[in-house]
Amino acid sequence: MPAPIRLRELIRTIRTARTQAEEREMIQKECAAIRSSFREEDNTYRCRNVAKLLYMHMLGYPAHFGQLECLKLIASQKFTDKRIGYLGAMLLLDERQDVHLLMTNCIKKFLYKSRSNIGFEFATNLYFRVAWNLEISTGPDLNHSTQYVQGLALCTLGCMGSSEMCRDLAGEVEKLLKTSNSYLRKKLVPQLVRILKNLIMSGYSPEHDVSGISDPFLQVRILRLLRILGRNDDDSSEAMNDILAQVATNTETSKNVGNAILYETVLTIMDIKSESGLRVLAINILGRFLLNNDKNIRYVALTSLLKTVQTDHNAVQRHRSTIVDCLKDLDVSIKRRAMELSFALVNGNNVRGMMKELLYFLDSCEPEFKADCASGIFLAAEKYAPSKRWHIDTIMRVLTTAGSYVRDDAVPNLIQLITNSVEMHAYTVQRLYKAILGDYSQQPLVQVASWCIGEYGDLLVSGQCEEEEPVQVTEDEVLDILESVLISNMSASVTRGYALTAIMKLSTRFTCTVNRIKKVVSIYGSSIDVEIQQRAVEYNALFKKYDHMRPALLERMPVMEKVTTNGPTEIVQTNGETETAVLETKPPHSGLQTGSQANDLLDLLGGNDITPVIPTAPTSKPASAGGELLDLLGDLNLTGSPVSAPAPQISQPPFLLDGLSSQPLFNDIAAGIPSITAYSKNGLKIDFSFERSNTNPSVTVITIQASNSTELDMTDFVFQAAVPKTFQLQLLSPSSSVIPAFNSGTITQVIKVLNPQKQQLRMRIKLTYNHKGSAMQDLAEVNNFPPQSWQ
After folding, report:
1. Residue-range definition of the domain harbouring residue 46
2. Which of 426, 530, 624, 737 could pair covalently with 465 via S-S, beta carbons 3.0-4.6 A apart?
3. pTM for this predicted structure
């Protein structure tokens, strides 16, 4: 039989193929020749044929019929045959092959046939696998003295050895590791530490030197094994501390070889129970990595710092400036890691400087970063804001820069922040007005600006801003901006809704442009946008039919409160007992807010027998500030139908109850029912006078009169009440929300109580108002009703 062609000739022939079909034909022809040679047990050219078969395997053609031939080459006495045989075993065999079982004896044989220094890395690789599968309690040294066969066997076993093979060969490998070779490590930590120390302190070794470092591959593998052994082990970790410090301080960092060892050292230090000083040293190494020109090293350092920042926050903080500089890197992966790490470093001490850098990054970063960066700034500002003005300025800067990328809850959160910052209203509305002049591209910013202009447009026109130089703006200029938002092609439907509502609110803030506002609102009554059309129709009806209610309906929003888990426990109890809130055991009603005020009002009488204020009309969609009372009481189960009232306010929307400006319906006090003082505290006095209905004797009409004996007016006054379930209560609108000082005037409000069972009347009241620049709130219980009022 003629000699088969050499591997070089086969490669040259295959490369001359012009089509894939021609290449397949060449491969099939050569495979047929190789099969024939295998059948004839041609030992002379077996090595050559297996080498060609491996090349075909690399090209993607089947070569499984050469597996047994690989075993025959491994059993050969020639090193060249063994080299090709082991290479074929690694490429053609895996732990699922039956031939795999035949490898055990061959490898066991050659583990002791010769010893070679070059096989150390392979032995360590294998030993990792053996140690994990068998949990060998002791690890011995291995002293390789001669050539390469052992390295081939160990390499093959490490690459394709199954758990069963490793179990069968564990004894042989353990014995091999117990030999006197100084490069091999036993599993026990002290011996590993000594070996690693010898590697560091030893001189130049040409056989294992890489870029001036002695056997870096062995050092890396030892460090990885130390990391495994020292995890959750105090004694082992303590034994490693000194050698890890030596490796960290004595390793050269000018070459990647040294950086690889240092990185493994850092991972080991962070994974074991190391000393605090050693952890600081590891973080400083990562900080030096951030200054490296290699992008991969910088990325690895940022990722490692991000994992350790929670446990070693102060040590990472020392490298804050270097981390921030990475935000300017051209590599997007490094930018993202630097951004995540920067947010993790923000705290109350550095929030101003860090937010400045992150806002600068937000201005210049790619679009894919803006959403995550904006969300991170929002969270950090909410948690660490040094002042409300800084908080508002920061959020506005984000909306101006990346408004289109912010979360959906950014707008309501900022509105709540602005509402609760009473002293910042004039400053905020002026800043927002300037921000949207001629630019409506950032829709969340336009929505917040429209809402603020609607709420505080009078402050904008009056120029009452002490924080910065006020702008001179007229009512018509403000309306021009809002109308521009309405007609802009960039405005979404939600934004137009904000703008139309703002224009409607300005009808109570402005005095000279009410007719213009009416005209604008009437125009949008025929809008093709159903939402805008519905709002405009409702606002037109408010102008035409309920104009007397408009000032109260469109008054400013009260201070908003967030939901708190311990709200009810903070209520001041007049009876000295702790009462639990009913809402804690009930699911929230769909679409309604359940703030701490709701818990307050539900606790007015204690227990579950609470009947809230009954609205004077069927519920409808909230549109203004009056929604607070409906939100407070909307989750209650009412036991009866509302008491009818012949007042003009019967058709008013129930979500606007706290701001109506009607006069008391009953002015004549029935003879024989004495008045009482229900509340008198801090200069505020509440008197109740009574009248019985002529048409229904079960209805008691209570007229409250609130007076103020202090030297300053009480503003934003709100009176709320609740009675037991056996009663039904209807609270009409007050005559005003301001109680004049020095008893120069009063607020009157009518309460109608239905008492069909003629039980003794009890009532809890809640009073909220602003006085001397502070928000005041108090609860009281009224039990001294005269018998004539309920019998």
Report:
1. 7-134
2. 426
3. 0.51
